[in-house]
């Protein structure tokens, strides 16, 4: 059934997809409503407790989003998935908080969050795609909304959710547009600096092998995004040096091998992403190199 749904949706051309996205209320046709219902069903199946069903639904949704109708570069349904994801996270996180401390209560919210984050790691571009700004609300874009949720996830005290959140955040930074205009890049760097500040304050213990490797990956990615233009400057920002020194502490002999490897990868990313002033690298300035 999932395969059949996917084949139906994949066969639709732009002339049918766009009205499905844009028509609301009484203006919606029975066809557009049916199409939305089919796609909504597929999305819900990505959270199904049955692993095989969940996996297949995720593959079908990803396949649909990866093949937008000609001549579009981004599938119009990407924004629907992004908005739906934010809603699921908000509702599930509330359910997790309400069930905290209640013995014998099945935490469906935690399971839905785990399944959702696993699915979103396969489609991170839905939050950073060019048409994403259509999902702006009074609280900001879906990217900003999801980022806030992910940064708050460690408060739920579930190691897997924290790991998954950091992995998804890392993937957000990895899909940035290398040809973005300067004003867009400046806004992106400013947002990345805010994320970086929050991450630094949430630094895990060096012996926390469950969280530390994932935190190291995302803090390096955030720093690389926030200060990618530093190589043009005459000096390296103190924030970059602070992150470098903080990451370096995770090479301590008391840290697990996985943490050592993640720290080394993080330092390599920082060193190769333009975070340091080229002139200082050449002269050994600031007494750091």
UniProtKB/TrEMBL annotation:
All copies of the RRP12 N-terminal HEAT domain together span 33-124
Protein name (Swiss-Prot/TrEMBL): RRP12 N-terminal HEAT domain-containing protein
């Amino acid at each position: 059934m999932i395969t059949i749904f996917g084949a139906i949706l994949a066969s639709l051309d732009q002339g049918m997809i766009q009205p499905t996205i844009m028509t609301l209320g009484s203006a919606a046709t029975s066809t557009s409503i049916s199409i939305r219902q089919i796609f909504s069903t597929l999305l819900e199946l990505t959270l199904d407790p049955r692993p095989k069903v969940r996996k297949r639904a995720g593959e079908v949704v990803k396949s649909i989003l990866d093949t937008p109708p000609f001549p579009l570069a981004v599938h119009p349904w990407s924004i629907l998935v992004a908005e739906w994801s934010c809603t699921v996270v908000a509702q599930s996180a509330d359910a997790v908080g309400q069930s905290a401390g209640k013995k014998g209560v099945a935490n469906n919210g935690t399971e839905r969050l785990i399944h959702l984050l696993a699915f979103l790691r396969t489609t991170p571009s839905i939050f950073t795609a060019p048409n994403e700004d259509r999902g702006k609300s009074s609280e900001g874009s879906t990217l900003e909304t999801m980022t806030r949720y992910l940064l708050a996830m460690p408060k739920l005290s579930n190691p897997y959710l924290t790991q998954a959140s950091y992995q998804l955040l890392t993937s957000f930074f990895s899909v940035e547009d290398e040809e973005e205009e300067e004003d867009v890049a400046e806004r992106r760097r400013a947002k990345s600096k805010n994320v970086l500040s929050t991450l630094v304050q949430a630094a895990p213990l060096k012996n926390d092998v469950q969280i530390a490797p994932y935190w190291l990956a995302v803090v390096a990615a955030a720093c690389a995004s926030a200060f990618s233009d530093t190589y043009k400057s005459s000096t390296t920002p103190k924030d970059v040096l602070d992150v470098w020194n903080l990451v370096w502490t995770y090479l301590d002999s008391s840290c697990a091998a996985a943490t050592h490897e993640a720290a080394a990868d993080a330092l390599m990313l920082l060193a190769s992403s333009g975070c340091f002033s080229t002139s200082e690298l050449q002269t050994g300035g600031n007494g750091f190199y």
